[in-house]
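Fill in residues.
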């Protein structure tokens, strides 16, 4: 029994040490438009550890579903897609979640994002486990980007309808 307890304590210590290796910087969230039930969060994730880690999921109570997404070019059109398996955060390096690239996607937003709101998000890493992040909503960032095209908005709404609004 002591061995099992010792192994459990060692696993907890390892997870705590791994979580300490993950840092989140420059995080902010936006809603794609006041009427769209979707939004996104962007940030820089740093890994100060000696081994690569993998961001494998994100969860939040602000939306029906929270997913890891990226943009791909298909027939000359930028489209968003869910990323199965997540994003690698290299050892002693970082991975940027940015507009037009990898990001956290909120589908089926329960209430419109208001400038200055704080979104509580749990990032789940393969090794570090859960890392809690409070992400400020910065709607001023919308003026710094090209708005989502009508086709992208329609695709997002179709994606929402095809997959429902239940959490995974």
């Amino acid at each position: 029994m002591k061995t099992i307890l010792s192994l459990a304590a060692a696993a907890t210590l390892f997870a705590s040490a791994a979580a300490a290796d993950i840092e989140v910087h420059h995080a902010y969230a936006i809603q794609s438009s006041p009427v769209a039930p979707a939004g996104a969060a962007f940030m820089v994730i740093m890994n100060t550890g000696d081994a690569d880690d993998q961001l494998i999921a994100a969860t939040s109570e602000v939306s029906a579903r929270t997913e890891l997404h990226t943009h791909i070019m298909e027939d000359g059109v930028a489209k968003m897609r869910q990323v199965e398996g997540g994003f690698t955060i290299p050892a002693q390096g970082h991975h940027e979640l940015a507009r037009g690239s990898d990001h956290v996607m909120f589908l089926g937003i329960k209430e419109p994002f208001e400038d200055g709101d704080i979104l509580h998000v749990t990032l789940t890493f393969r090794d570090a486990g859960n890392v809690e992040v409070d992400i400020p909503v910065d709607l001023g960032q919308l003026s710094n980007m090209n708005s989502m095209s009508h086709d992208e908005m329609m695709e997002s709404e179709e994606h929402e309808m095809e997959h429902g609004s239940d959490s995974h």
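The two ends are 36 Å apart (CA to CA).
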